[in-house]
């Protein structure tokens, strides 16, 4: 059940981020932050096309991690060879996509002047949450 939830959230993050870009595209300035420093302040700017590139990275990540984690078999009703590893991979995929989605949301918000910087603490929390299951399974 955890795996289905992680798969649904992952797909939702990908589609939600695509919708965010589509809805905000007309209101975005020509330049958006392309990189943030260790404090979360934008230190490199790029054309807004960078958002489509980042969405492409999200999509490739989603497809690649889904294929390697056995998601097609899950959809066909086949059990994965290692259910525990499949759950961990689905969890990691969900958190990687959440991190990318948050970064892109921050890029849009900073570009529009709605937010001064990316919240680095949230990125650190997402990274810690991402690797937590690995350590839990390793201990078993």
What does this structure look like?
It is a single chain. The protein has one domain. The protein has five helices and two strands; from the N terminus they run H-E-E-H-H-H-H. The radius of gyration is 17 Å and the shape is globular.
Spell out the helices and strands N to C: HEEHHHH
Report, as a whole number of angstroms, the end-to-end distance.
20 Å
The counted number of beta strands is 2
Strand order of the largest sheet: 1-2
Number of domains: 1
Structural class: mainly alpha
Low-confidence region ranges: none
Average pLDDT reading: 87
Radius of gyration of CA atoms, rounded to a whole number: 17 Å
Q: Largest sheet, described in full?
A: 2 strands, antiparallel
Gross morphology = globular
Summed up, the helix count is 5
Percent of residues in β-strands:
5-15%
Give a quick summary of the entry.
With 140 residues, the chain is mainly α. The chain contains five helices and two strands. The chain is globular.
Describe the structure using short key phrases.
2 strands, 69% helix, 140 residues
């Amino acid at each position: 059940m955890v795996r289905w939830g992680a798969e649904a959230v992952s797909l939702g993050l990908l589609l939600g981020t695509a919708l965010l870009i589509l809805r905000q595209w007309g209101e975005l300035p020509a330049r958006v932050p392309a990189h943030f420093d260790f404090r979360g302040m934008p230190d490199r700017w790029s054309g807004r096309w960078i958002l489509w590139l980042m969405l492409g990275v999200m999509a490739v990540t989603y497809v690649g991690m889904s294929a390697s984690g056995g998601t097609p078999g899950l959809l066909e009703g086949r059990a994965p060879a290692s259910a525990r590893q499949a759950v961990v991979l689905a969890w990691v995929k969900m958190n990687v996509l959440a991190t990318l989605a948050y970064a892109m949301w921050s890029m849009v918000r900073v570009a529009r002047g709605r937010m001064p910087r990316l919240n680095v603490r949230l990125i650190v929390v997402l990274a810690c949450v991402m690797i937590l299951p690995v350590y839990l399974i390793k201990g078993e």
